[in-house]
Design brief:
single chain, mainly alpha, about 90% helix
Length: about 70
């Protein structure tokens, strides 16, 4: 299973690569490349969101564990 940081980094890389593909597709009039770029950007956005969700879950669980430890 990938970590939150791994997901965020992969997401950012996919978004950047997708933007480049989309830009090149626009510049040369290649609709297939434009579409691939848009898809890769969307994939990157989902990966980043997964990383954010994993981090939020981890932070929440750590907060609960801290409270439990203080009670004991």
């Amino acid at each position: 299973m990938s970590t939150a940081t791994d997901d965020k980094a992969s997401g950012m890389a996919n978004k950047a690569a997708g933007s480049i593909k989309q830009g090149i597709g626009n510049a040369v009039g290649d609709s297939k490349l434009q579409t691939e770029g848009a898809g890769q950007k969307a994939k990157g956005s989902v990966q980043e969101a997964m990383g954010d969700a994993k981090q939020a879950l981890k932070d929440g669980l750590n907060h609960l564990a801290d409270k439990a430890n203080k009670t004991l």
